[in-house]
Amino acid sequence: MSTKSDYERARGGKLKLKGNKTLFKADKTKRKKTVKNTEKQIDPDITAHGGWRRIKEESELTGGISIALECGNGSNCYLAALDNGRFTIGGPHLNGESPNPEEVGVLIIEF
Question: I want to staple 2 with a disulfide (CB 3.0 to 4.6 A). Which of 6, 45, 49, 96 is the partner?
């Protein structure tokens, strides 16, 4: 049977698990600084289009995402769908305004 001395020999404190923990304080501060620097970088293109961002790589085109096609002349006009199934160029938007619902399409990929 266990005695009180067995319990006294056990170490107290919180449970320590194995894992990818840094042992040195310098590494922890470097990691915190890099996280803070990445959070402060705001893309001006995202704020100009109301939270919508530009797709830079083909790998970002996955199924179930909403897309809006902007006209190339920089007038903040998007491609809009009409009720008869045709497309037209929508009206110009102010800086920071997102596209209208008829100017938003959904990408669906079938395998």
Answer: 6
